[in-house]
Write a structure and sequence with these properties.
2 copies of one chain form a homodimer. Chain A has helices at 46-62, 82-97, 103-129, 145-154, 171-176, 197-206, 226-240, and strands at residues 2-8, 14-20, 23-29, 35-40, 66-70, 134-142, 158-165, 184-189, 212-217. Helix content of chain A is 42%, strand content 25%. In chain A, strand 1 and strand 2 form a beta hairpin. In chain A, helix 3 (103-129) crosses helix 4 (145-154). Chain A has one domain: 3-Layer(aba) Sandwich (Rossmann fold), CATH 3.40.50.1820. By secondary structure, the first copy, chain A, is of the alpha/beta class. Chain A binds chain B through residues 190, 201, 204-205, 209-218, 225, 227-228, 231, 234-235, 238, and chain B through 190, 201, 204-205, 209-218, 225, 227-228, 231, 234-235, 238.
Chain lengths: 241, 241
């Protein structure tokens, strides 16, 4: 893990860009150390996502958490995958046609992404937990819910997760959800135009966790209200501190 | 409104029993006055519900709210209605038989209760708002969700509502829900054995409110977690202060 730049944000949060091999990432740390860590998931494209990631990281830092994220395979400045681009184009056509989206397209888009991304998040976790600024429990928060499900199943260092139910989920991941046992806080945008609400409810139902909470709010994909972010933060405060 | 007894609870909250004509009720006031008011709905039976109502009232008082409740028609010490008792028995038989519950039974049980209870809650509100201890906005919180829906539609003094999705809802009330426009915070116990989850989701979908939030948690009918009560309190703090 190589730090490539740093800047101090207004509220004392230190933002540092890093690379982990070929993978760009960002780490935010609060004044206090060692801090429990929240991994910030996102749909890909660190530059485009940066303003929203910074807002989430500052909210986390206000509760005493460090936060970190890495670029997804095939997104941002990372090399594109021809197969993934084709699957994404097929998905877009299927959504625009208004019909149901074929499971095969979802599998082709999401499963290889999960297969590649999850080991990268785990490698990032190895590097982050070796830093003196980071200590204590780890949470995962964010989008591409299928990555969150797989991480929750395979990575025992993740103690709790906030998941955004806002993307297509392969049937295989829905089955995998039954093996998740950590506390979960699931956010659903009720009228999300790019989202299959019934799939999100089925996924919530499938999770094996004894403590799981679903928070559904109005507004579209990017319209998660401020208070919903605060509630997610309190969920982490209950489980990571 | 006649106060019939009073006691000071450990945390400085004053609990006073009252009668409003034939109707028994309870008022809890915090130290500070005038306090915004939360009407505490419940499924009927003030004596049996008292411990849970006191807990909710104390949680409300800790945020600076007064709380009040009245007995439902046909419950507790109030005269029974033969028609309601028959409808309740029919509902119990239908639930025990495991089949779907006939709409006609739900209508026969719930609609007369709504017709009788809502004017009583409004009369209680008239009396409560005349007290110097009460002032500012009013919220409704609680069970028999159909009563909450009707109150939200007809009573303009109610500014926000926390509704427990945990009882059978007549089709007519589902239609009425489209006319609700105040901010709503809906609690759903995901695995509530006495509850129709799909009906609860349909009802949430039907509400006309621009701000509506659904919080689904694990556990049965009476297992609403402590943190869910705190989130509901913060919802009222956002909308009633």
């Amino acid at each position: 893990m190589q730090f490539t730049s740093e800047q101090r944000l207004g509220d004392g949060v230190l933002e540092r860009a890093f690379t982990l091999g070929e993978i760009p990432g960002i780490l935010w740390t609060p004044g206090s150390a060692p801090a429990p860590l929240i991994l910030l998931g996102h749909p890909g494209g660190l530059h485009m996502m940066h303003p929203r990631l910074v807002a989430r990281a500052r909210q986390a830092a206000a509760e005493g958490f460090a936060a970190a994220t890495i670029e997804l395979p095939g997104s941002g400045d990372r090399p594109r995958s021809a197969a993934a681009e084709e699957a994404r184009a097929d998905l877009r056509r299927a959504v625009e046609a208004g019909g149901p989206v074929d499971d095969e397209i979802v599998d082709r888009l999401v499963l290889p992404l999960v297969e590649k991304a999850v080991p990268e998040w785990r490698a990032a976790l190895d590097a982050l937990l070796a830093l003196p600024e980071i200590g204590g429990r780890v949470g995962y928060s964010g989008g591409v819910i299928s990555i969150g499900v797989r991480l929750a199943v395979v990575e025992p260092r993740i103690s709790a997760a906030v998941l955004f139910a806002g993307s297509f989920v392969p049937r295989a991941i829905l089955e995998e959800a039954r093996q998740v046992t950590i506390p979960l806080h699931v956010l659903l945008q009720w009228d999300d135009e790019g989202n299959d609400r019934q799939m999100a409810l089925d996924l919530f139902d499938a999770f094996g966790s004894k403590e799981k909470t679903l928070h559904a709010n109005m507004g579209g994909h990017t319209g998660v209200p401020q208070f919903a972010g605060e509630e997610a933060n309190r969920f982490f405060a209950r489980h990571l501190k």
